[in-house]
């Protein structure tokens, strides 16, 4: 009985304690309604107006019965804060949140010890109902704007290749606005279409892309490059002349390149060039000067990488240029010697050849035959000897056979016999005496355009006179021999382009003076020397003894300014009545070596009347110094011009090579005034010299 009473007392005490604990629970009277998040909401705060102490939360995902990692709960200061991640899936998700007192989980049926509510986050439906289908774009670089049909606030864009391998940098996409998506592509330069997948994903770095991820995918297709579509790619045939061919493309050939290969050289053809203009490709060929058609393979392409391969957008065709019928001579002219001969001539031609000409008609030239190797013709011309005195010329016409209409002209020139014979085949030396003479020079030759050359001025050769075919005469004159030396000679050359003949002409003197010209100053003496090859006595004579006299021994004395001739003679000799030689004597005095010049200043002269104010310079180029005694200006009547003041001359000495400048006052309106100076030389000779002022 006692034991039962103790148990009842303990039960009452325990109940009393539990009753007190329940009344102290912070969850007592707390109710929390279920919470709903949109897919992109991340936080909600609930005011529970209760201080939570020693309260914990349990969060269980209702689908997995495991802790919901996508939701967290924070209890602080009477507020319940719920944090969640953006829902990137296409499913709603839900978690049951239970708040409970720490250490009291065994009383789970007591509503005062725990509070439960549901948290639901809606599925991600931002990509549902988008107005997006496959985007197809031209091969050119461009962009396309897609109106989405709804607003997308948060999204990221992923561009992938269809095969997961190809490079998709050619395609980019971005949201222009929340309702517009822009897709941009670069120019497509390869063959075939190319495609890319554009995927819109939730804007979250933690998004696992799987079957539940909210996403939308569409295909971007860029068509094959169509620049060469519909372009005529057949071979192009050009005429032989310089010409241009235009190829019209589907669009402007921006970035297009060309590769041209000459079929003969395997190199770029020098005869063909290409130029791109707007939607046209222009091929320009030079004139075809070759002997055959020429061809080049042309490839127009977009440079997609460094090589032209199967993926390259290209078109290939041949450009051919017709040959030009022509005859090309190795030489356009032949110059032949006078002998009979056979001449081989090379002719390049792509047609047959006929040869015509006057020389062939007259049988001066005959054709012995042709030898043909490809386009090279070897033709032998048989030419007869030219026995005339004329150079033979004829033009051979090489005419293309058939209707080619081409021809080439070959000028044939055959020289005449160049042999020259003088004096009927003898080379001679002609000798003349002092008085000279005339002889006839006979030139026998079939080359009438010969030349005669000589050096001596004492020999003159007359014009050519024709006697008969191949015979010509010239009158040659040798003048009288006067001057220095006992003998003079010259060689006369008669020449053409190939032959030279010569003969010597000489002229001898039996009496000659050692000097032909001398200059002497007044008062000087000079002994003339002579050679006399005869036994005759000599005599001397001056043609003007007042200028210079000569003694019977040949001593010449200069007497006054002037010119005279001194002659030495042996009388009649060798058919000449007065066989003599002469020396010209020119006598000068010191005044010839003193110069008077008017320097710069004011000077006017009208009808001989002078008004001037100019200095006078006296220069001495005499062999020694002179003494200037006076300087004055005189009028036309030799009257001295006087001034209030005049220059004073105090016997100024002017050295050899020196000069003296004298300044006079101005003269006014004097008729033909002169400058008059008086000077003396070292030997006491006095000289007066006047010049016009």
Structural features, described:
The chain is mainly beta and 693 residues long. The chain contains two helices and 57 strands. The strands form 16 sheets. Strands 30, 32, 34, 35 and 36 form a five-stranded antiparallel sheet that branches. The model is unreliable at 1-23 (pLDDT under 50).
Distance between termini? 185 Å
**Coarse shape:** elongated
Low-confidence stretches: 1-23
Mean pLDDT: 88
Note the total helix count: 2
Helix content: under 10%
User: How many strands, what sense, and barrel or not for the largest sheet?
Assistant: 5 strands, antiparallel
**How many E-type strands?**
57
Over the alpha carbons, how many angstroms does the gyration radius reach?
A: 65 Å
- Please indicate the percent range of residues in DSSP E strands (runs of 2 or more): over 45%
Q: Short description, anyone?
A:
With 693 residues, the protein is mainly β. Helix content is 4%, strand content 48%. Strand 4 (71-76) and strand 5 (79-84) form a beta hairpin.
Features:
single chain, 693 residues, mainly beta, five-stranded antiparallel sheet, four-stranded mixed sheet, 2 helices, disordered N terminus
SSE arrangement:
Elements (H helix, E strand, L loop, with lengths): L1 H22 L11 E3 L5 E5 L7 E7 L9 E6 L2 E6 L8 E9 L12 E8 L13 E3 L4 E6 L8 E6 L9 E7 L2 E6 L8 E8 L14 E7 L13 E3 L4 E6 L8 E6 L9 E6 L2 E6 L8 E8 L12 E8 L5 E3 L3 E4 L4 E9 L3 E4 L1 H4 L3 E9 L2 E8 L8 E9 L6 E8 L5 E3 L6 E4 L4 E9 L5 E3 L5 E3 L3 E4 L2 E8 L8 E9 L4 E9 L2 E3 L3 E5 L3 E3 L2 E3 L6 E4 L5 E3 L4 E4 L3 E8 L10 E9 L5 E5 L3 E5 L2 E5 L2 E5 L5 E9 L17 E3 L4 E4 L4 E5 L2 E7 L5 E7 L1
Parallel strand pairs: 1-7, 8-14, 15-21, 23-29, 31-38, 40-47
Antiparallel strand pairs: 2-5, 3-6, 4-5, 6-7, 9-12, 10-13, 11-12, 13-14, 16-19, 17-20, 18-19, 20-21, 22-24, 24-27, 25-28, 26-27, 28-29, 30-32, 32-36, 33-37, 34-36, 35-36, 37-38, 39-42, 41-45, 43-46, 44-45, 46-47, 48-51, 49-50, 50-55, 51-54, 52-53, 52-56, 56-57
């Amino acid at each position: 009985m006692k034991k039962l009473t103790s148990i009842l007392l303990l039960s009452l005490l325990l109940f009393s304690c539990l009753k007190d604990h329940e009344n102290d629970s912070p969850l007592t009277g707390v109710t929390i309604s279920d919470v709903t998040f949109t897919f992109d909401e991340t936080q909600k705060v609930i005011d529970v107006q209760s201080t939570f102490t020693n309260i914990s939360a349990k969060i269980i995902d209702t689908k997995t019965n495991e802790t919901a990692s996508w939701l967290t709960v924070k209890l602080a200061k009477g507020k319940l804060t719920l944090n969640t991640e953006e829902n990137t899936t296409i499913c709603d998700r839900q978690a049951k949140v239970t708040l409970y007192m720490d250490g009291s989980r065994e009383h789970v049926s007591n509503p005062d010890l725990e509070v439960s509510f549901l948290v639901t986050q809606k599925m991600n439906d931002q990509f549902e109902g988008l107005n997006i289908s496959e985007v197809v774009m031209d091969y050119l670089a461009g962009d396309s704007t897609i109106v989405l049909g709804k607003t997308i606030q948060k999204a990221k864009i992923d561009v992938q290749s269809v095969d997961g391998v190809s490079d998709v940098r050619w395609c980019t996409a971005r949201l222009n606005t929340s309702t517009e998506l822009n897709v941009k592509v670069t120019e497509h330069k390869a063959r075939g279409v190319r495609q890319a997948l554009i995927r819109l994903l939730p804007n979250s770095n933690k998004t696992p892309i799987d079957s539940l991820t909210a996403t939308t995918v569409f295909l971007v297709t860029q068509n094959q490059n169509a620049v060469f579509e519909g372009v005529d790619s057949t071979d192009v045939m050009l005429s032989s002349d310089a010409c241009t061919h235009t190829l019209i493309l589907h669009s402007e050939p921006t970035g297009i390149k060309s590769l041209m290969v000459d079929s003969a050289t395997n190199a770029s053809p020098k005869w063909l060039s290409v130029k791109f203009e707007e939607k046209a490709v222009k091929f320009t060929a030079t004139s075809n000067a070759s002997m055959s058609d020429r061809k080049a393979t042309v490839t127009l392409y977009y440079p997609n990488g460094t090589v032209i391969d199967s993926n390259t957008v290209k078109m290939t065709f041949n450009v051919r240029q017709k040959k030009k019928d022509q005859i090309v001579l190795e030489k356009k002219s032949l110059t032949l010697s006078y002998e009979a001969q056979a001449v081989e001539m090379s002719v390049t031609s792509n047609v047959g050849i006929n040869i015509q000409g006057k020389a062939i008609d007259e049988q001066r030239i005959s054709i012995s035959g042709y030898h043909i190797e490809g386009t090279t013709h070897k033709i032998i011309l048989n030419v007869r000897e030219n026995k005339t005195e004329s150079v033979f010329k004829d033009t051979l016409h090489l005419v293309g056979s058939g209707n080619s209409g081409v021809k080439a002209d070959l000028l044939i020139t055959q020289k005449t016999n160049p042999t020259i014979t003088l004096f009927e085949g003898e080379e001679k030396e002609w000798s003349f005496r002092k008085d000279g003479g005339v002889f006839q020079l006979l030139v026998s030759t079939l080359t009438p355009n010969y030349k005669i050359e000589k050096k001596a001025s004492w020999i003159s050769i007359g014009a050519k006179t024709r006697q008969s075919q191949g015979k010509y005469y010239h009158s040659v004159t040798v003048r009288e021999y006067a001057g220095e030396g006992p003998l003079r000679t010259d060689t006369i050359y008669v020449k053409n382009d190939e032959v030279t003949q010569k003969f010597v002409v000489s002229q001898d003197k039996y009496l000659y003076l050692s000097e032909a010209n001398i200059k002497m100053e007044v008062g000087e003496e000079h002994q003339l020397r002579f050679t006399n090859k005869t036994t005759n006595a000599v005599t001397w004579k001056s043609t003007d003894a007042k200028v210079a006299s000569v003694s019977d021994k040949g001593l010449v004395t200069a007497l006054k300014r002037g010119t005279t001739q001194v002659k030495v003679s042996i009388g009649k000799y060798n058919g000449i009545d007065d066989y003599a030689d002469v020396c010209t004597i020119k006598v000068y005095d010191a005044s010839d070596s003193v110069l008077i010049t008017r320097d710069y200043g004011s000077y006017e002269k009208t009808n001989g009347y002078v008004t001037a104010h100019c200095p006078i310079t006296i220069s001495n180029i005499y062999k020694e110094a002179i003494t200037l005694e006076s300087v004055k200006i005189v009028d036309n009547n030799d009257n001295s011009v006087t001034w209030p003041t005049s220059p004073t001359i105090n016997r100024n000495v002017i050295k050899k090579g020196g000069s003296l400048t004298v300044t006079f006052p101005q003269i006014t309106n004097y008729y033909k005034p002169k400058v008059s100076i008086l000077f003396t030389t070292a030997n006491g000779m006095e000289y007066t010299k006047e010049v016009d002022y």
